[in-house]
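FAQ
Q: What does a multi-component entry look like?
A: The components come first, one per line:
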Amino acid sequence: MSKKKNLRVLSGIQPSGALHLGNYFGMMSRMIKYQEENELFCFVANYHAMTTLPDPNTLSSNTFNAACDFLALGLDPEKSTFWIQSDVPQVTELTWMIASHASVGLMDRATSYKDKISQGIKPNMGLYAYPVLMAADILLFDSQIVPVGKDQKQHLEMTRDMAIRFNNTFGETLVVPEPDIEESTQLVPGIDGQKMSKSYNNTIPIFDSEKKIRKQIMRIVTDPTDIDDPKDKDTPLFQLYCLFLDQAGQKDLADRYDGKGLRYGDVKQELFEKVMDHFGSFREKREQLVSHPKQVYEILDSGAKKAQKVADEVLDRVRSVSGINYRTWHIESN
Ligand code: ADP
Ligand code: TRP
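Then the predicted structure of the entire assembly, as tokens:
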């Protein structure tokens, strides 16, 4: 019996590099769970990645790898709609139509643009218009809920702003989405204690070799506290380990940190085993997908087809109200 799915949930991730624990716990695992009770729309944002990845080899291989990541981590193409952004190019048309009604003042307030420039990324128009493309991603599918990490909060506010402005001009046309941001979850720390991020080179990757994962875990910064003194729990090793523990496990770990004789080397080894255990079956599945690209392409083709059907309906609505559908307007006004 097919179950009624409650809400349309949409999210995407840029194929900007190797997937890490921050991406997984911050966003992907939460997003994938939505497929059980809701209508999940999920895509790989390769047009977005183009703003920072000029090399075609990197962009194309990252895109394919990101698709394999999602599928390996449990995204089920039967239960959800999964595609590569550029396989539904309708999104670029909606981007233009929204851009033509979005205020430059709003764009100028985007902090992620300023952050990227301050990191030394060369400003380009794509980078500047990034929030409009993201709004189009969301609005093109009548999305109701958008699960993202905290760092995407402003982009979601901008999307709502653009949708409301569009609706005020043309009447109710676009669905105004609600963000789903887990405020209670802390950002996953990297091995140096800053936010885990590809750009900081401080990640624990999920699908890299065992050797590399081990090496990164062994590099997690710790303090020189004496073995018999209580240890600080507001530290990356403790926080990372807690991601893999239930409440009772977290309490045990906290007790060990408060007691005597705790060696950080042992904790790191345990964390390494937890990581391998947690992701073991996902890693196998991913290897299988990567070595059968045709199967992956088939999944992506059928996902793109499903997504295009919805996109065309929404785009038709937007074309009609905005006057781009000039023939209808011409006939009606004569
Ligand atoms: P990165 O910072 O490594 O480039 P992205 O910006 O591509 O990661 O993030 C992809 C998704 O993963 C976003 O929804 C983001 O909020 C989430 N995310 C990334 N890093 C973390 C982190 N350290 N903790 C929690 N969520 C994260
Ligand atoms: N900007 C998001 C990120 O970097 C990725 C993204 C692109 C996205 N389009 C989206 C997320 C639409 C949610 C909805 O993480």
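Q: Is there any commentary attached?
A: Sometimes. For this entry: Strands lie at 8-13, 39-44, 81-84, 145-147, 178-180.
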